[in-house]
Each structure stands twice: as structure tokens, then as C-alpha cells.
Amino acid sequence: MPVSFKKVEKEFYSLSDIAGLPRYQVMHFRPLDEEHNRDRRRYAQVRAGNKPRMEIASAFRELAPEHRLGLYAHELGHLMWPGGSESDADLAAYGLLGVYLGYDRKWPGKGLQTALLAPPKLWRIVGEPTGPNIRAGNGFSKRKNT
Ligand SMILES: [Zn+2]
């Protein structure tokens, strides 16, 4: 079940607040849907400049909480440090939110951003992670009771 865009917006703003960053706009960016169809890793990007914002593909809404949190944290890292590299964004994510990022190799290339470890208050925003090891590592019972 995909989450609503409204929920994405709420999650992004809550995390921005915790990071101490402004509430930059988050928007569905149609061209990213086409890019996502060509490259499965393309879910989100940020635009710097005088109106910084985060842009997402529709498919972003279908991602598990650990991937959404990983991408929010990584993109907030880019927004904080626009000239930084990919690893600078990951480092900023850790500094801003305490999210330790890994890359899920079920996706091609480098893999997809995944929050491996995060403070409990961040999981309350995005929901419990689904991966058994990530659940265990963050203090959740190994299998989600549904
Ligand atoms: Zn990046």
C-alpha cells in the first residue's frame, strides 16, 4: 500500500524540523517518473538555488519506511550541503538526524539508500522498518505483527 503524498509531506516536514532545517517544499516531479522507469534507483532528488526543494517520483510512495527515511535523510543532507558529494550527504544525514545509512543491493549499482540505524522518534514518524535485521538492530521484534 503506497503512502499518500500528504503523508510524504508530513514526514519530510517533521524530519526537517528535527534536523533544524527550513521546511523546503517537497513535490511530485513528473519527469522523475520517467527517469524511474529507466533507472530503478531514481526516486528522489533535490534542487538547490534560491528555492531549494525535494522532488519525488510517484514510486517513492511505495517504498518501505527504512528506504523512505534513508532517502529523506540523504536528501536533507544534500539540502544542508548543496556542494557536497554523495558521501557528504550521507555524513550530513548522520550529523543532522542520527540516521546511519546503508545501500540496499536489491537495487542496481550502488543500491538504494536505507536507514540502517535511526533514533526511535524517527521510526515513529515513518513507521516501523520491515527488514528483519534492521528491525532487530533498532529494537523491534524480528517479525512485524500484522
Ligand atoms: Zn545524493
Outline the fold blueprint.
Layout: H1 5-19, E1 25-28, H2 30-38, E2 44-47, E3 53-56, H3 65-80, H4 86-97, E4 100-104, E5 112-117, H5 120-126, H6 132-137
Helix pairs in contact: 3-4
- List the bound ligands: zinc ion
- CA(first)-CA(last) distance: 14 Å
Kindly name the structural category. alpha+beta
Assign the CATH architecture: 2-Layer Sandwich
Under CATH, the homologous superfamily reads: Metalloproteases ("zincins"), catalytic domain
For the biggest β-sheet, the strand order reads: 1-3-2
Q: Percentage of helical residues?
A: 40-55%
Order of helices and strands: HEHEEHHEEHH
CATH topology: Zincin-like
For the record, the count of structural domains works out to 1
Instruction: Give the strand content.
Output: 15-25%
| Biggest β-sheet description | 3 strands, mixed
DSSP, total strands = 5
Which word captures the global form? globular
Poorly predicted sequence stretches spanning 5 or more consecutive residues? none
Q: Any idea what the radius of gyration is?
A: 14 Å
| Residue-averaged pLDDT | 96
Number of helices in the DSSP assignment: 6
CATH class call:
Alpha Beta
Describe this structure in words.
- This protein is an alpha+beta fold and 146 residues long.
- The strands form two sheets. The protein has a three-stranded mixed beta sheet with strand order 1-3-2, sandwiched between helices.
- The protein contains six helices and five strands.
- The mean pLDDT is 96.
- The protein has a single domain, classed as Zincin-like (2-Layer Sandwich).
- Helix content is 45%, strand content 16%.
- The chain has helices at 5-19, 30-38, 65-80, 86-97, 120-126, 132-137; strands spanning 25-28, 44-47, 53-56, 100-104, 112-117.
- It binds zinc ion.
- Zinc ion is lined by residues 74, 78, 86, 89.
